[in-house]
Amino acid sequence: MTAPTTTRADCLALDALDPLAGLRTRFDLPDGVIYLDGNSLGARPRAALARAGDVVAREWGTDLIKSWNTAGWFDMPKRLGDRLAPLVGARPGEVAVTDTTSLNLFKALAAALRLQSEGATAGRRTIVTERSNFPTDIYMAEGLSRWLERGYRVRLVDSVEEIPAALDLDAAVLMLTHVNYRTGYQHDMAELTRLAHEAGALAVWDLAHSAGAVPVDLHAADADFAVGCTYKYLNGGPGAPAFIWVPQKHQARFDHPLSGWWGHASPFAMAPAFAPVAGIGRALCGTQPIVSLALVECGLEIFEATDMEAVRAKSLLLTDLFIDLVERRCAGHPLGLVTPREHARRGSQVSFTHPHGYAVMAALIARGVIGDYREPEIMRFGFTPLYTSFADVWDAVEILKDILDRNDYDVSAARGLVT
Amino acid sequence: MTAPTTTRADCLALDALDPLAGLRTRFDLPDGVIYLDGNSLGARPRAALARAGDVVAREWGTDLIKSWNTAGWFDMPKRLGDRLAPLVGARPGEVAVTDTTSLNLFKALAAALRLQSEGATAGRRTIVTERSNFPTDIYMAEGLSRWLERGYRVRLVDSVEEIPAALDLDAAVLMLTHVNYRTGYQHDMAELTRLAHEAGALAVWDLAHSAGAVPVDLHAADADFAVGCTYKYLNGGPGAPAFIWVPQKHQARFDHPLSGWWGHASPFAMAPAFAPVAGIGRALCGTQPIVSLALVECGLEIFEATDMEAVRAKSLLLTDLFIDLVERRCAGHPLGLVTPREHARRGSQVSFTHPHGYAVMAALIARGVIGDYREPEIMRFGFTPLYTSFADVWDAVEILKDILDRNDYDVSAARGLVT
What we know:
homodimer, alpha/beta, Aspartate Aminotransferase, domain 1, Aspartate Aminotransferase, domain 2, 2 domains, seven-stranded mixed beta sheet, four-stranded antiparallel beta sheet, 14 helices
């Protein structure tokens, strides 16, 4: 922002100029809600309701088993993968939408360790990651390491500055989440991948908070494997199947333990020995949840009306505006910005600490401003340019200001499950 | 059947006496279709359409992130597991509906091998199963064996008679599918589990073609682990999440490599070290596909209007009638019964071979009788007592007879994907 935006009218003026403003009508958001939690669960595309009805009533109810062919159920993981690919700099035939992020990470890590188990890197036994990574990524790496035929270990670093030193002669894989779920910090994917390769390690990226949020170019970064989520910024629906990227350079040797029949070269030959299919299909395992999977398409369609450069431009305007307004309008309150001010290091969310962060967030939600909370003290606000307006930002900050100015939050409120 | 049923009127009379006849109205089946493929994809419960609309429009669209708590999304795998439990002789807190059958089998097998890796069985390295098992079960066992810290192997037996000899001093686990997907042969779960235990092995059962199809009593059989499918006889919807059973006796030591955050003792504490939750929750891994998962409940609700003894009684009447009518009405045609005549050894499907099985099945489907085909030569007909009538059986056999009598099938038809 070159000049500070100081009034709601300024925000409305920004909305009037916003080339993405029209896309808000492609979503169905409840009245009276400012939804700043698309980093956790994306809003519902309007098309999703009719699509769910069609999959359930016609494809399942009427066409029954024929839909595996006629409705393209069996090919859906790859078809959706091809639609998602441009958002992360992947090529056709390199992405599948399937299973969960945790499971896809397990496959990618296993494949990376297998690739490293030959040649000069055969002795390497360490997966390097951050202590602040989303826990399930660490848990899956632990689970894999603990069970593999040779003893692997997970090494946790406490800051990005420690990564170069951790990439020692024992480092087999650098596994990072591109944008941190708590802080919104965005790694330099190309530079860290370069460091990993220079050190003889492979780079595995989790794009859970990146896909649909920030521009990603996996090929330009020369990354090795990636996984990600469709139910956050891609608006695929609650718990919608995740994605996995296996670049062509690694497909022929992509090998993982979850060798189910959907990854077989001839799944309906019912052969008793596993033979992986060529291409991204070998990342598949079992039968996919078709209704949830089909809804992913409704989210992806909306991105085809724009591009990630436009999304990113608005995202930075929204997050700059939010930071600026919170710091000016709520000055004097004990709020601490956690998210980087530097654009290149920022995802599409803004996190502030507050000593009573949980209670303040509960008060915000009660007044229709939906963000969420992460221990310790962190209030998270996600900004999704497809459906969030500049006026939304203004209004959210005014409500936050009012809550803080009047101490209108209950510090004794019981803590429920916050997702 | 004590006396042969010889006319359609006899079948209508059976329908009039059928205590389950009223349940057919709980399903929405297309007009003009006799659906005998519920062993592959169960028909759609009427309630599923409204439920899908409610999950998508209200729970996702309106309540958004709050639904993880208010709509019980986070607890759904266990809540549905408790509803499913009585159908397989499981107790509350022992079943979770989650992931895919393939993945759940991977967890169960891994846990079984881990249990066996201590004490007198520590040297055992073999998973015994049947060559005729559903391939993904064999593939997952292969994948696990190939990757584990010590060298395991999968031993395939060619008949049930070979199982006792295969349960040698190297046998760690006996992994069987209770009802065979091609033949409809039903194993004696209690007897084979007893043999496994006597030989020092654990017994892991796949109930994909059993749950909702035949009475199962996992505790009476003293089984060790089980997995199964919700989208066949349980009518949960295409690719709906599968289930896993971990009995209380094994829960404290249930340990598998797919240690994702949904299996953590405190998933929202975001601790960097994995600590499994007590109970069946440790069989969970990543975030589940909520829309598909929610529809499983619509199928389970229907079973609560009856019980598996009533379902089984009608299933045997239906399959007896089908076998009897095919053998009498289509006598002279080269049909071979593959499914056991003995009730105790029969699931809820009937398979017949025919030299042109694929073409005959295609002709049946074209005339509204939907079964399916499995190599080599096998026509499968599934009987789902909740929505299949005795008149359906009569009509299906008359159409089969007409096709065969008139040679009204195209042996040169291209073979598409048959699921």
